Amino acid sequence: QAQLVESGGGLVQSGGALRLSCTAHGFNPDRCALEWYRKAAGKDPEWVSKIDTVGLADYGDAVKGRFTAQKVKDADTWYLHMNNLKPDDTAMYSCRTGGRYCPTFVRGQGTQVTVSS
């Protein structure tokens, strides 16, 4: 069964850093782009980042300059490096495959990030 599994969330103080992981299971993600989204309580879902199959990444304005997306070479894993975290970054973060040539569209269950002030 194709699935994405996120990990790495947790509680961190403002100004801290976390690294989220998203790992594909049950399918070959080589032709997939990977997007990160987040959902904070009481707010609409927000697009965070997208990284394509050659490693080119784009970011939402709220995280640009602080977050970095990475595809781990020769592994079915992506990272989202989050630096200088702020309380407004508190949300459930999830990853999703995408792209024109991706054979499998799937979304993970998410990992919670909480940033204390």
Structural description of this entry:
This protein is an all-beta fold and 117 residues long. Helix content is 0%, strand content 50%. It contains no helices and 10 strands. It starts with a strand and ends with a strand. The model has no long low-confidence stretch (mean pLDDT 96).
Strand content: over 45%
* Number of DSSP E strands: 10
Order of helices and strands: EEEEEEEEEE
Number of helices: 0
Query: How far do the termini sit from each other?
Result: 40 Å
Read across the widest sheet, the strand sequence of neighbours is 2-10-9-4-5-6
Major β-sheet annotation: 6 strands, mixed
Structural class by secondary-structure content: mainly beta
Note poorly predicted spans. none
Taken from the alpha-carbon principal axes, the silhouette is globular
Mean residue pLDDT:
96
Q: Any idea what the radius of gyration is?
A: 13 Å
Quick tags:
single chain, 117 residues, globular, four-stranded antiparallel β-sheet, six-stranded mixed β-sheet, mainly beta
Question: Which helices and strands appear, and what pairs or packs with what?
Answer:
Layout: E1 3-7, E2 10-13, E3 18-25, E4 33-39, E5 46-51, E6 57-59, E7 67-71, E8 77-82, E9 91-98, E10 111-116
Parallel strand pairs: 2-10
Antiparallel strand pairs: 1-3, 3-8, 4-5, 4-9, 5-6, 7-8, 9-10
Concise overview:
With 117 residues, this protein is an all-beta fold. 0% of the residues lie in helices and 50% in strands.
